[in-house]
């Protein structure tokens, strides 16, 4: 398959962002997969539930003026692993890895990123406050002033991974290693703005294109209700491009079973926070793509100079963006990420929310990788 990256006709970037949205009439296959997925994962969830107490919480005010909610686990003097969530997620997506990292002797720190959960959503009506430079600015302030670290280990998923790639580009001195989940690094292309490339490739209903228009998707999410929206995201396992059709993202009557790796309690936590804070903060990251592209011209075709481990599920929509498998497996990715671990992990029968769906395996990969650099 032709990779748009090498043809200079478009940028893959946006196509790799959070690929967990639905066609309005395509929920059936998910339901059929449910029993098998349930049996496979039934053994994992309960073991670490009773250790919840070791996760502590605080709110810190950064020198960027933004207050972030932090969840933390592990001894305070230990090497720090910063965990960055995606959309529509929260620090909570890392709960399993936090316990595993703490048990392995690391300090795990998972913020709600700006715009999310119990953190500030600064100027939420102005997506210009959500560029990669703003979000990375928060992280640098967090690392320097709050955590008091010269360097941290980073693990990141979905939009968190995009932010982590930017952190590695802008401030490689701050990152010891990166474990990136679901979203690969694709360098900025000077030839075309990412949203234009995506529109040319997938059309106006492609989710990232629909999200550009302030308020439209918020209205659709409000019609469906926060809980159903989150269930639809979490249960999504369709390996292909995703669309928010103008006719609606499904019906209120849709039966959307919870995936085995999301408990009622988990769903309640996410629902309460997104009810309170709304989706706009997270959606602003997509709406800032244009401005980020404008501001990052100095990093056109730049390489990532940090040791990296990459992990992805074979049912993750991000693994089915046009050209991505060739890019990952035939040298393109390695060219732009020279310190990439050659063993790219492709997990079988795993969807987008890989750190929640395969908590033990992902924790092990993170710990084994950072151990080599500790
Ligand atoms: C970004 O730019 C594209 C055109 O290049 C436009 O279609 C889209 O609406 C813009 N997004 C925002 C949030 O302004």
Automatic annotation (TrEMBL):
SUPFAM superfamilies tied to this protein: alpha/beta-Hydrolases (SSF53474)
Domain of life: Eukaryota
Pathway recorded for this protein: Secondary metabolite biosynthesis; terpenoid biosynthesis
Domain AB hydrolase-1: 79-194
Enzyme class, first EC level, given as a word: hydrolase
GO molecular function: epoxide hydrolase activity; hydrolase activity
Record-linked Gene3D superfamilies: alpha/beta hydrolase
Keyword tags: Hydrolase, Signal
Matches recorded under InterPro entries: AB_hydrolase_1, AB_hydrolase_fold, Epox_hydrolase-like
Record's catalysed reaction(s): an epoxide + H2O = an ethanediol; (24S)-24,25-epoxycucurbitadienol + H2O = (24R)-24,25-dihydroxycucurbitadienol
EC number(s) reported in the record: 3.3.2.10
Signal peptide interval: 1-22
Similarity comment: family membership: Belongs to the AB hydrolase superfamily. Epoxide hydrolase family.
PANTHER family per the UniProt record, alphabetical: EPOXIDE HYDROLASE
Function per UniProt: Epoxide hydrolase involved in the biosynthesis of cucurbitacin and mogroside tetracyclic triterpene natural products (e.g. siamenoside I and mogrosides IV, V and VI). Cucurbitacins have cytotoxic properties and exhibit deterrent taste as a defense barrier against herbivores. Mogrosides are nonsugar highly oxygenated compounds used as high-intensity zero-calorie sweeteners; they also possess pharmacological properties such as regulating immunity, lowering blood sugar and lipid levels, protecting the liver, and acting as antioxidants and antitumor agents.
The protein's name in its UniProt record: soluble epoxide hydrolase
Organism: Sorghum bicolor
């Amino acid at each position: 398959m032709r990779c748009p990256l090498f043809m200079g006709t478009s940028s893959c970037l946006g196509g790799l962002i959070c690929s967990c949205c639905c066609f309005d009439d395509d929920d059936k296959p998910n339901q059929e997969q449910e029993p098998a997925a349930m049996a496979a994962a039934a053994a994992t969830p309960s073991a670490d539930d009773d250790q919840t107490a070791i996760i502590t919480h605080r709110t810190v005010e950064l020198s960027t003026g933004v207050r972030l909610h932090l969840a933390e686990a592990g001894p305070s003097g230990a090497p720090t692993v910063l965990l960055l969530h995606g959309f529509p997620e929260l620090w909570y997506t890392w709960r399993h890895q936090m316990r595993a990292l703490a048990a392995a002797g690391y300090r795990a720190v998972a913020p709600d990123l700006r715009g999310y959960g119990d953190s500030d959503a600064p100027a939420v009506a102005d997506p210009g406050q959500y560029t990669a430079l703003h979000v990375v600015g928060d992280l640098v302030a967090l690392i320097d002033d709050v955590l008091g670290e010269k360097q941290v280990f980073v693990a990141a998923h979905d939009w968190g991974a995009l932010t982590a790639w930017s952190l590695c580009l802008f401030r490689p001195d701050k990152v010891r290693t990166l474990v990136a989940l679901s979203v690969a690094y694709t360098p900025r292309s000077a030839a075309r703005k990412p949203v234009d490339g995506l529109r040319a490739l997938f059309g106006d209903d492609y989710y990232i294109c629909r999200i550009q228009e302030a308020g439209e998707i918020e209205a659709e999410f409000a019609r469906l209700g926060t809980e159903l929206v989150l269930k639809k995201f979490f249960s999504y396992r369709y390996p292909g491009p995703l669309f928010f059709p103008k006719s609606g993202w499904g019906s209120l009557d849709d039966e959307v079973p919870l995936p085995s790796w999301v408990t009622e309690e988990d769903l309640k936590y996410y629902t309460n926070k997104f009810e309170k804070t709304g989706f706009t903060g997270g959606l602003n990251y997509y709406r800032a793509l244009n401005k980020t592209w404008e501001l990052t011209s100095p990093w056109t075709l730049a390489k990532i100079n940090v040791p990296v481990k990459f992990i992805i599920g074979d049912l993750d929509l991000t693994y089915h963006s046009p050209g991505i498998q060739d890019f990952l497996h035939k040298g393109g990715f390695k060219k732009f990420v020279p310190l990439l671990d050659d063993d790219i992990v492709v997990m079988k029968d795993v969807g987008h929310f890989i750190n929640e769906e395969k908590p033990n395996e992902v924790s092990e990969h993170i710990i084994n990788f950072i151990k080599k650099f500790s």
